[in-house]
Write a structure and sequence with these properties.
The chain is mainly beta and 558 residues long. The chain has a domain of 138 residues. Helices cover 8% and strands 35% of the residues. The protein has seven helices and 35 strands. Strands 11, 12, 13, 14, 15 and 17 form a six-stranded mixed sheet that branches. Strands 3-33-32-31-30 form a five-stranded mixed sheet, with no helix packed on it. The chain has a five-stranded antiparallel sheet with strand order 5-6-7-10-16. The radius of gyration is 23 Å and the shape is globular. The two termini are 18 Å apart.
């Protein structure tokens, strides 16, 4: 055995011992969209800001079933103001942070993205979740629980970007998604109708906003009107490349990118497949592009119209060799009268950018659940509306959990029972529906009570309305971690009104097809009048914590 092999063997043994010595620990990261900064008598609900709220898994696991408030003496979270992490956003990028819509962990779980969704804001941040760790004299990296005070919060900043504003529009980022290998972050620049890309280089540990990769989802526009920028005070982030300007207005089939069949290409969520090649781009007005994310610019390889794939879908998971997507109620005012809960299964074997599919709606889509009623006119029917949004899958890939923001339920699907025949009747596809988990009735989600009112100026003390949004699953697959919206929601006000902002824990039972809401961890931001809880949690995600372990850079031999 040569010395390199011996070093590798010793290192592997060391890591094995470390893994045995430390159980898996994880955190729940919550994205609080509320304007938590500049709250005053002149601006009682604030003007900018957002909060990052972090709960430790050990607190979640040891808490008895029940409700826990943000100031709980035993189970309180770490609260970090986003403006403390990125204090130079306004000066460097020309916009303040606003509406932290969601965060997702890098595949290494060291980094988190942060998507700020304020009107005209268009900011994406990279957070180093280990930025407060230290390396001791004996070469071990020590990571204590994250601290939220401003001096420590700034250590979490890795990079910050303002995305592109084409001629006639401004950036407005909805979400961004990591590729499976962690080398790309695909950004949904919603109101600018662009798909954008940030590249990660492991060797230099840097993030680059790649302007050359930008895909115009409408076409024909000057992309240089407001070019992407990086916060120069964070040297791990940079913007480079040259835009492909005035891109085609047509798809590979010759159809208009935006037009008949795709009336509004505000990009909702770009769901990335595990092949490090394709991204499934959903639109507010319906339809879908499958995009090769490796080219410059990124390229459309397949296209679907809104009579095949409905709008406003943001849930997406991969499992069993397929990608699963949803469609839900629109965030626009028209969505207040719509009821949409649809589930789709799509293949993964699309071609690359040099050989796109030129026939629309091919290969065919499998629809395995559908409840859809548009433009409801009878007020008595409005409480029965549906809205599919947050989706996750258990680690075994057997069960898919799709949550409904309005009905406060999770529909459970057995992945192995979905019929892969696109012509199969819905009666046959219904066999995949394994059950429904009801989040109401636990008594854990009553309103604040007393002087507090919701967006309609109504007291909500006895409400039981979790309004589940985005969702994740614990590493052992036994608990679903579900974001709960607030009584004064920042976005989707017709569907996201809730009574207990924070997150819920659904403890699964048996084989995972059933479960119950066992815990609610609540968040709180008081407005200046003392009558409103502004907290509005849109996303709850699980980050696996790295163990305190040897500093790998110090152990590697040249």
């Amino acid at each position: 055995m040569n010395w390199k092999m011996m070093t590798a063997s010793v290192l592997a043994l060391c890591l094995l011992n470390v893994n045995h010595a430390f159980a898996i620990e994880w955190e729940v990261w919550l994205s609080d969209q509320s304007n938590s900064a500049d709250i005053s008598s002149e601006n009682p609900t604030g003007t900018f800001g957002s909060r990052i709220v972090i709960y430790e898994s050990r607190d979640i696991m040891k808490a008895p079933p029940g409700t826990y408030f943000e100031d709980d003496a035993m189970f309180a979270p770490t609260v970090i103001e986003a403006v403390d992490v990125f204090p130079n956003a306004l000066e460097e990028l020309g916009a303040n942070l606003e509406r932290l819509h969601g965060m997702l962990p890098h595949p290494s779980h060291k980094y988190m993205n942060a998507n700020f969704f304020g009107s005209g804001v268009g900011i994406v941040g990279i957070i180093d979740a280990e930025g407060q760790c230290t390396v001791s004299g004996n070469g071990f990296k020590k990571c204590k629980p994250i601290q939220g005070n401003p001096d420590q919060a700034e250590k979490l900043a890795k990079a910050l970007f303002r995305t592109t504003g084409p001629e006639g529009s401004a950036p407005n980022n909805h979400m961004s998604f990591w590729s499976a290998d962690g080398t790309k972050l695909i950004v949904a620049n919603l109101s600018a109708k662009l798909l954008e890309r940030i590249d990660y280089d492991r060797a230099s540990d840097t993030f680059t906003f790649n302007k050359a990769a930008t895909l115009d989802l409408v076409g024909g526009r000057d992309l240089t009107a407001m070019e992407a920028r990086a916060d120069s005070t964070l040297p791990a982030g940079r913007a480079s490349g040259v835009y492909s300007n005035f891109q085609l207005e047509t798809t590979p089939s010759g159809a208009m990118k935006e037009g008949e069949g795709r009336p509004n290409n505000v990009v909702i969520c770009p769901i990335v497949s595990g092949n490090n090649k394709h991204v499934y781009v959903t639109f507010g007005g319906g339809g879908l592009f499958v995009v090769d994310m490796t080219t410059e610019p990124m390229s459309i390889v397949a296209e679907y119209t809104n009579d095949v794939i409905s709008g406003a879908g943001c849930g997406g998971v991969e499992g069993g060799g397929f990608v699963h997507l949803n469609a839900g109620a629109s965030a626009s005012p028209a969505g207040a009268d719509d009821s949409v809960f649809i589930m789709y299964r799509l293949p993964m074997d699309y071609p690359d950018g040099s050989n796109p599919i030129t026939t629309p709606n091919e290969p065919p889509v499998i629809k395995f659940f559908e409840e859809k009623t548009m433009d409801i006119t009878d007020e008595a029917d409005l409480p029965n509306r549906r809205d599919a949004h947050g989706m996750t899958i258990n680690p075994t890939k057997r069960y898919l959990y799709q949550f409904d923001r309005i009905q406060n339920v999770a529909e459970v699907f057995d992945m192995g029972k979905i019929d892969n025949d696109p012509n199969a009747p819905m009666s046959r596809q219904e066999m995949a529906h394994a059950g429904t988990i009801d989040l109401s009735g636990s008594g854990f989600c009553v309103g604040e009570g007393g002087r507090f009112v919701n967006q309609d100026e109504e007291e909500y003390e006895m409400n039981d309305d979790p309004a589940p949004d985005l969702v994740d699953v614990s590493p052992n697959g036994q608990k679903l971690i579900v974001a709960f919206r607030g009584p004064n929601p920042v976005t989707v006000k017709h569907a996201a009104l809730g009574s207990c902002p924070g997150f819920g824990v659904v403890t699964l039972e048996g084989d995972g097809s059933t479960g119950n809401l066992t815990h609610v961890f609540r968040t709180f931001v008081e407005d200046d009048t003392g009558t409103k809880n502004l907290s509005d949690i849109h996303a709850a995600v699980v980050r696996i914590k790295g163990p305190n372990m040897p500093n790998m850079a110090g152990m590697m031999m040249p």
